[in-house]
Amino acid sequence: MSLAPATPDATHEAQRPRRGSRIIAIMRGLLRDEVGCLALVILTIVLVMALFAPLITQYDPLFQDRRAVLKAPSLAHWFGTDDIGRDVFSRVLYGTRISLFVGLTVVVITMVVGGMIGMISGYFGGLVDMVIQRIVEALDTLPSLVLSLFIAAMLGPSVRNVIIAVSLAQIPRFVRIIRSEMMKIRGQDFILASKVIGSSPLRIMLTHGLPNLMPTMLVIGSLAFGIAIMTEAALSFLGVGTPPPNPSLGTMLSHGTRFIGMAPWLIIFPGLMLTISVLALNLIGDALRDVLDPRQR
Amino acid sequence: MFEGLSTYGRALTVLAASAMLTPAAHAQETPKYGGKVTINVHADAPNFDPLASTEYAVHSRLGLAMNRLVDWATGPDIDYGEFVPKPALAESWDISADSLTYTFKLRKGVVWQDVAPVSGRAFTAADVLATYAAIRESGVQKGLLATVDTITAPDDHTVVIKLKRPNVILLQNLAHQNMWILPKEAFDGGYDRNSVVIGTGPWLLTDNQAGVATHYKKNPTYFGKSADGKQLPYLDEVEILPLKDLNARIMAFRSGQIDIWFGPLNLTQMAAIKQQVPDLQEIKTIANTQTELYLNPSFKPFSDLRVRQALNLAIDRLALGDVVRGGGGIGGVVGPALSKQTLPEEERIALYGTPDHEKAKALLAEAGFADGFSFELTVLNYGEEFVREAEWIQQDLAEIGVKAELKMVDLAAGQALAKEGTYQGLFLVMSPFSEADEYFTTHFLKGGNRNYMGVDDAELTAMIQEQQGISDPAARQQKIWEIQRYTAKNVQNPLPIWSSLLLHPAHARVHGWRPMLPQGFPSLPEVWVSE
Amino acid sequence: MLTFALRRAVLGILVLITVSVLVFVSFRFVPGDIVNQQLSEAGAVTPELLAQKRAQLGLDKPLLVQFTEWASGVITGDLGKSLWTGRPVANQIATALVPTMQLSIVAIIVGAVLGIGAGVAAALWRGTPGDMILRIVSTVFLAIPQLWLGLLTLTGLAMIGYYIPLPYRSFSVNPAINFQQVIFPAVALSLGVAAALSRLTRSAMLEVTGADFIRAARARGVPSSRLYIGHGLKNALIPVITLLGTQFGNLLSGTVIIEQIFNIPGLGNMLFEAVANRDYPVVQAAVLTYGVITIVVNLLVDLSYGIVDPRIREARS
């Protein structure tokens, strides 16, 4: 499907161009990739809808128009209204905002924390690695939603706690992948050379490890973004996620279950937005993989 | 699509508790024996030990197999929340002139269900003594017998209860939904009352599968007779399904898998069900619980009665009940389901149902909060519609400049916060009380189980103690009303909000079904099915 | 091979101990306890009664004592009694495990059949509109949350007037009813697995197309479809097994939601309720059970590599 010319193998590139030009290169690669283009377009639409929500809709997502309860989609209310008269379209937009915020924060936390731990574990090996791996395995023993559910239920529903719960469940996978990538490059010439000239491990990890691991991190990061959004929705659905009255897509779905077959718009639109957001992120992940590691296409 | 179902109209959908729609058409038909009905409840019974928890799921299930000394009468002329004592295991009783000695004559010829190790033995006073002794020792119902001094049995069929001080509601306490009488073997290690159910009731519990169903079959030795002398129960089998999920319940009801609906349902949802099941019986009552908003006086603004009055004036309860709950009754110091004890509806509407934002703002200004204030409103997660109520209140309060930040907690955490008093505002659903006295003693007496706001008002305490000793019903009702008026004027904490509409739709084949306030389906023995 | 399995088992037990300690300690910091729940509807509750009930359940003992008692029970195979039901936790877990495992296994089988089938088809039809459609469908299904899929299934069923029979019946009690109850949630769960598998299978199949031995065989006149399926599938086997292993974890996550939506009394439902009730022994046992499942599945995945590829087996011994 991809007609884009093969880009150089980024992961094992010996020379490392400066970061700025690298990001431009990745973006250019994405734009050249059909899937990447499509993904960027969808993601941009989703982002614009979320960021400019106040400009797109004049409805306050929290305002209860108590005279317009459970109205089907119409020109006044594009996605209808919920059971206390709040505009579903506006709630979907603001809900997407919360989803993206949670997702982005989780990804940043996971990338920083998971990336650091993974690099340390992979770089040093030995006892450090052993201890880290046991802890990671312990966290990884529980299915991720079960772990998040447990943590969120323990901490109580709030956006902050959701972020903690989802991040903790995502970190183990990150650590494992980054660790194995770090182990792969640990023995390569440029790292050995740095060691010889006496660079500190931290310096080596930041100057040599990080740039080389960045592509992998971006790929799994974009996938983790999607997973984080879905997990936030699931936790909110179960009542331990984003607390009311904030419009979370998961909470909206949970409201909708009370009106299945009566007010399908309460289920269709939040779910659709959720799916589109995750789809866009997954596609970005796919395209990044194609761009960064063409062997796998 | 829903126009007209949930109009913004006032008072129209506010039902008095007595406005129960009982299908009168079936009253003349002759009951038929046989058949089965399936009822849903919201949860599994964790166990069957009536002394271990006050859980609805336990006591509602026990009611089919067990009896109390005194029961709630049911009938077309009796309100959902009206206690009319009816002989059950006690056939009759005498109350001494000083109201301190109750002598119960037990019904003769009653036998326990034929389940080992009790195996159909005759019921005697020793069973009553053993049950009450165990309850007074460590039962969750302990408080109901707090005024009891001694319980003795002069012979096998007489039980004498002596009180420390007069208690006009002793009969009702003995008829309380948690006061099942068990065979004495349940307390001397004869069997495990946690898992084995042995009673004297209309049905035998034959099988209980967690998450699946509880099955009952007719007890051939049941003592109960209908008013015209027919042997009860009519039904051969009963099945109780635990269905937590609303959709599962809706689908089960539509497809006829459940005959009698129990649990939350609003008018919109029922209207949708009715499209599929046009001949369903719309049986409506008011829940015997109400939502209440607690304002912690240790949080500065709430220590001022004017602020509490202002909040009361901000909340548009009638519209809330109409839109969010699709009907029900406006709350009171005593919940509206207790139709003979709560203040008359017009008076409750005057006290709680006439929002006035101007006056509220004036009160706030007087109290020094002209610009309003913010507080954290802890909301116990009682489910979707309850959360909608909280969101509704949030918007109402915002209109007088009081900003409530919602903080959701689960029930266990919420109860802990309430008991510790570490909250600013607290929104919850009150326990299903069946007597005004329960509302008063738990909410307003020092150390009361629901006195989360630390009320300790000498005048109120005296009035509460006084009503406990008034044996003339009319005089007691006046005192109970007086207490409620006093509370609304001088305490105004917690703010009673709303008692939701309870819909118990039943399929047309079910006859004689009357929901009643106490758990355990008291009218079920007289239910029969046509087919 | 045996020593490998043993070593993994020992590591697994270490991990389980860590998890147990973490869960035991952290959960005790959650406010509220079961006694409040049990007495929640009672009007006249005194502090003495609360203390009495706590003592009956052993909740007044020091945390370390409680943990030692619980842990020594677990070692001897006794998971204790539920504080909420008073019944042995082991029985409850066993009952709840049946529907959860049934759901997961049915879902993984359905997912594997659909996914591998679609992957093979896409590889064979490479570049045709069929391939395109399959790739789009799989990409979309990867993005649909199981939560929404479950709700859409219910909405759809409600619209055509089909009702899943209730209450839940296990397969051994009533296979016909059980089938109707399990098939919809299982399919809702399986589509994500199928989507992931089909993409993986397709790319693994295509990888061999350029290999020398395929060119050689094709030159000898062996039909290419047979070549693809034979060699391609073999090449796909190891990544597919790995993916199935990781997907099993996702499936277990999915069952928590799906059990809620479809009213199935499984492990997820049980854990959720036990957390709400502060039923400590059940929470601990349920978490432990999830841990054991994950470890066993991972072990099976590892062992199956050896079976599929003899070189791995040799390398380990």
UniProtKB/TrEMBL annotation, chain A:
The chain crosses the membrane at residues 38-57, 100-125, 145-169, 216-238, 259-284. It holds the Pfam family BPD_transp_1. It is found in: Cell membrane. Keywords: Cell membrane, Membrane, Peptide transport, Protein transport, Transmembrane, Transmembrane helix, Transport. Belongs to the binding-protein-dependent transport system permease family. Residues 96-285 form the ABC transmembrane type-1 domain. GO terms for biological process: peptide transport; protein transport; transmembrane transport. It is a multi-pass membrane protein. One of its GO terms (cellular component) is plasma membrane. InterPro entries: BP-dependent_transpt_permease (IPR050366), MetI-like (IPR000515), MetI-like_sf (IPR035906), OppC_N (IPR025966). This is ABC transporter permease. It comes from Oryzicola mucosus. The keyword Cell membrane applies. It comes from the Bacteria.
Automatic annotation (TrEMBL), chain B:
Residues 85-450 form the Solute-binding protein family domain. The lineage of its organism: Bacteria, Pseudomonadati, Pseudomonadota, Alphaproteobacteria, Hyphomicrobiales. Residues 1-27 form the signal peptide. This is ABC transporter substrate-binding protein. It is found in: Periplasm. It comes from Oryzicola mucosus. Belongs to the bacterial solute-binding protein 5 family. One of its GO terms (molecular function) is peptide transmembrane transporter activity. Keywords: Signal.
From TrEMBL, chain C:
CDD domains: TM_PBP2. PROSITE patterns: ABC_TM1. It is a multi-pass membrane protein. It is found in: Cell membrane. GO terms for cellular component: plasma membrane. SUPFAM superfamilies: MetI-like. Residues 97-301 form the ABC transmembrane type-1 domain. The keyword Nucleotide-binding does not apply. Keywords: Cell membrane, Membrane, Transmembrane, Transmembrane helix, Transport. It comes from the Bacteria. The chain crosses the membrane at residues 9-30, 105-125, 137-164, 176-197, 236-262, 282-308. GO terms for biological process: transmembrane transport. Its main location: membrane. Gene3D superfamilies: MetI-like (1.10.3720.10). Belongs to the binding-protein-dependent transport system permease family. This is ABC transporter permease. It comes from Oryzicola mucosus.
